[in-house]
Design a protein that fits this description.
The chain is α+β, with helices and mostly antiparallel strands and about 325 residues long. The protein is built from ten helices and 16 strands. The protein folds into three domains: about 190 residues, no CATH class; about 90 residues, no CATH class; about 45 residues, no CATH class. Strands 2-1-4-5-8-9-3-10 form an eight-stranded antiparallel sheet. Strands 6-7 form a two-stranded antiparallel sheet. Strands 11-12 form a two-stranded antiparallel sheet. InterPro entries: Nucleoid_associated_NdpA.
Length: about 325
């Protein structure tokens, strides 16, 4: 993954005080730059709550800075410094607290250019030095990575492209979400939940022509395929899915969808939270936690909607032993 440039700035803001430390030059160690991006990309891909969209029509400072940098009006370092300075002003104006290292990465591939902006956190730790002695250290705690934005730079100036800006939020970001979405000028153009639910509703209709067990199994396999695509950060094309997930119906899934609902998108971004119920039913209270495969419903597990009663047979042997006190 070729990294053209990478730089980090520190921004700290507590009520009544504010400070930021701006780096003068981008990093020059190619291995370190690539390592940073190789750590961030999988984290970003696995996040289930990403938001897909573009810049709002109204101008904002962040969009102006991005466009100025792309037009080579300012250099990468100056661009990143100005973004952090504007972020500092935003935190002050809205009385928000933050502490992190803002990483900017320009990734240039053969067929794509991306700008990554993410907030990194550090963790205190110990290391053994060359004298086998312990000493204090601090290192990047990627598991606590906060806000992350990915901008597809090729699509910004393409009028019919409305999905070039992707945002995700991570550790400690809840109080900052609204402010950061406003700061980036983000407008949501993709409803992943609605697209996924519409697609799975068609899959349910399609599977009604199968025996009940086969229909439930097919829904589960389709949902699992979509879930895997989500984990890889890939979209789902229902033509490809129809070829890869085996069906016993008389017509292929994609033919059914095209005839039943021709306006359905051929490709969509799967929403993991909407897929889970087709794989497993789960629920918990303070006292009880239940999880079972969707294929079990109607076989070893039955549900009475009138009394909200769940009846289970073929309990796990380990659970039976516990209940019998063995």
């Amino acid at each position: 993954m070729p990294v053209t440039a990478a730089i980090v700035h520190r921004l700290t803001r507590r009520t009544g005080e504010q400070s930021y430390s701006l780096r003068e030059e981008p990093f020059d160690n190619e291995e370190h730059k690539s390592r940073l991006l190789s750590e961030i990309k999988p984290l970003f891909t696995r996040r289930a709550s990403k938001r897909y969209g573009c810049f709002a029509d109204e101008s904002c400072t962040f969009k102006g800075l991005v466009m100025n940098w792309m037009d080579e009006g300012i250099g990468f370092t100056q661009f990143s410094r100005k973004v952090v300075e504007q972020l500092a002003m935003l935190m002050e104006q809205q009385d928000l607290e933050t502490d992190g290292y803002w990483l900017f990465i320009h990734e240039e591939l053969e067929a794509a250019q991306r700008l990554w902006i993410t907030c990194l956190k550090q963790k205190e730790g110990l290391l053994l030095n060359s004298d086998n002695d312990l000493q204090d250290t601090a290192y990047i705690n990627f598991s606590k990575t906060g806000f992350c934005a990915c901008i597809d730079l090729h699509d910004i100036n393409t009028p019919d492209k409305t999905r070039y800006l992707t945002l995700s939020f991570g550790f400690g970001d809840r109080p900052l979400q609204g402010a950061l979405m406003e700061f980036t000028g983000f407008t949501n153009t993709v409803d992943t939940r609605a697209d996924t639910e519409q697609f799975m509703a068609l899959v349910q209709d399609y599977s009604e022509s199968m025996p009940e067990d086969s229909g439930k199994r097919y829904q589960k396999e389709v949902a699992e395929f979509c879930m895997e695509q989500s984990k890889e950060g890939e979209t789902v094309n229902f033509h490809t899915l129809a070829e890869l997930v085996e069906s016993i119906a008389d017509v292929p899934l994609d033919t059914f969808i095209t005839e039943r609902s021709p306006q359905t998108k051929e490709e969509f971004i799967p929403d993991p939270s909407s897929l889970k119920k087709y794989i497993r039913y789960t629920g918990r209270t303070k006292e009880v936690s239940i999880s079972f495969s969707n294929e079990s419903l109607g076989k070893t597990i039955s549900f009475d909607p009138d009394t909200n009663t769940l009846t289970m047979t073929e309990l796990p042997p380990s659970l039976i032993k516990q209940l019998k006190g063995e």
